[in-house]
Amino acid sequence: MSDVHVKFNLANDNEGLEDDEIFLPPAPLLAGAHVSGLQSYHEIYANSINNSDEFWKTVASELHFEQGSSKGLEWNFDAKKGDIYCKFMDGAKTNISYNCLERNLKRGLGNKIAYIFEGNEPSDSSTITYSELHAQVVQFSAVLRSHGVKRGDVVALYLPMIPELAVAMLACARIGAMHSVVFAGFSAESLSARIVDAQCKVLVTADGMFRGQKSINLKTIANSAVKLAKSENVEVSSLIMVEHLKRVTVPEGSSLPKIDSTEIDAIYENEMEKCRNVESEVEWMDAESPLFLLYTSGSTGKPKGIQHTTAGYMTYAFATTKYTFDAQPDDIYWCTADCGWITGHTYLLYGPLLNGLQGIWFEGVPSYPNASRFWDVTDKYGVTKLYTSPTAARALMAMGDEFLAGTSRATLKVIGTVGEPINPAAWLWLYKKVGNSNVSIVDTYWQTETGGHMITCLPGATPMKPGAASMPMFGASPVLLDSEGRVIEGPGEGNLCFDRAWPGMMRGVFGDYERFVKTYFAPFGGYYFTGDGARRDEDGYLWITGRVDDLMNVSGHLLSTAEIESALVAHEKVAEAAVVAAPHDIKGSFPYAFVTLNVGERINPQLIAELKKMVREKIGALAVPDIIQEAPGLPKTRSGKVTRRILRKIAEGTESGIGDTTTLVDESVIKQLISGRSARA
Ligand code: 6R9
């Protein structure tokens, strides 16, 4: 592997922080915690590694298995020894939807509120109990069956953060169909690519949604995606649409979008009515039956369908929610993530329901109606555990502390962050200002591929260092490897890998075993490679330093530089493009594009707008480069490889550190790019 690239240098962002300042978990949290004190963490951790099967089976024994298994974790990470695989409780039979619903009804939680739905407008809110959720899930699973969905099929879900999304995911799981949730900010092309890859016959969407004052016409996007899929010979036969806009309060100054219908449309509410009293049994799934697909960016451009299976993912989601958030029966648990991302899957839907928690689903944005929204909602419902992103924290911090005034946030006990490294300034703001210095902060490091938390503090156990993901989750065994694959013992920095399987890990890339091996197991034989770099300090704490591959992390979302580049070069005036991550105060980093134009073309505001539009249409608004700079040429090695290391320095404005450029074909392009940047600035 090449050099370890430190994208977001946390070590240098110590604003407001005393050297080596360590924060202890608040005493009341320590007292009643599932894991109380560091000593206890170390003991349980050692047991989870040394007696791993016994450890995981004890965890799993709290869940319902229709049929047990004598098997524990089995795996092979070394391609030289045969196929790469991981299995957990092979031969057992269970169903995650049953465990989230029926199991809780049997435990007497039927009347407990499963979720509070907080709409885009503060006046739009509703609740659903465990038994109501169960009834809707049974009903919608009958709807899916009536549309021909069977065990093993993939159903695409393109929905806002509304109750029907939870219902649809659980209904798929109930009947053994895989859900493939596509973030409702993705474009028609992205949605269609995911429909085509998994050959989805049924797409569930909504008419539209509001995010703040902005209206989004989801149905139009869904219609185009269906058309595009058809042009690739994948025929969606049912487009089930929730009539969400009919029940929402329209934000002031906004209006309802016009909804176009097609021949394959079915209205969600009508379909539910048709299946009101239809029985729809649970499918007992094999432990290793696929549960869902979730697409994530890949460094070669095409998104990968990350595949998770039943028993392992369920056990890991259950355990990590319990331990990381110290889940307690009276918690009001709020994960602000969208279900279009893995955090929504594991820590908004499955993990909290498996733990019988009361959760909050939030459809809106942190800045609407104003930047107090998070804190208003926290006080309104008495949130005890809040799980959000560093980007949201930085954005709200930048708005000023006056937005905290008038709210107490006194019920908060744990604040979690996920998606990207958190800089100490944002960490301290969450701890001191939001949490009144009376909370534990858990900076949770993990990936779509890992299914659940891999490195994190535990709220009643781990002394906290701002910016450090800290310690491994039970059963997770991180190792740092140097570029030659040698293990770095003790303090040091290297490529973050795991040397043993854990129940929640991905089981494959949908339809592409080669890519699964190449991406995760070939870089360092015998290890799962995360694609991230990390540093271990003298106390054994792990600090994530950022991606070491060609992915970038924008506001906690992974984007592929190759995918953005191919969207840019699709423009007739662009000859070549290179995209790198540049640091950003709020988003962590942003896409910075260098484009070489065809002879005779020059960059101008209109072309920039066209290029941005192209990226928005091909991928989604998230991926649009903030800066597009014309490049008369790109720095390339003699073998024709673009040297991104140099482009990153130029984008960052730290070109003094460019280093040796003598291996380049044309060194003079660097000077031109630097002066192009200052001209632009
Ligand atoms: C859960 C999720 C995964 C990538 C991961 C890493 C970055 C996530 C982090 C973090 C530093 C943390 N990442 N959590 N970096 N500290 N606490 O975000 O999944 O969308 O697949 O992204 O996000 O780079 O490899 P996913």
Keywords:
31% helix, 20 helices, eight-stranded mixed beta sheet, disordered N terminus, seven-stranded mixed beta sheet, 681 residues, binds ligand 6R9, globular, alpha/beta
What report would you give on this structure?
With about 675 residues, the protein is of the alpha/beta class. Strand 14 and strand 15 (about 305-310) form a beta hairpin. Helix 8 (about 190-200) packs across helix 9. The longest helix is centred in the N-terminal third of the chain and has 17 residues, at about 130-145. Residues about 1-15 have low confidence and may be disordered. Ligand 6R9 binds near residues 420, 530 and 556.
Q: Short summary of the structure?
A:
By secondary structure, this protein is of the alpha/beta class.
User: If you average the pLDDT, what whole number results?
Assistant: 93
Give the uncertain stretches in residue-range form: 1-16
Cα-to-Cα separation, first versus last residue: 34 Å
DSSP summary, beta strand count: 32
- Residues in β-strands, percent: 15-25%
Rounded to the nearest angstrom, the radius of gyration is 24 Å
Shape descriptor reads: globular
Secondary-structure-based class equals: alpha/beta
Question: Counting H and I runs of at least 4 residues, what is the number of helices?
Answer: 20
Name the hetero compounds present.
Answer: ligand 6R9
Task: Provide the helix percentage.
Answer: 25-40%
> In order across it, which strands form the biggest sheet?
12-11-8-6-7-14-15-25
Q: Largest sheet at a glance? A: 8 strands, mixed
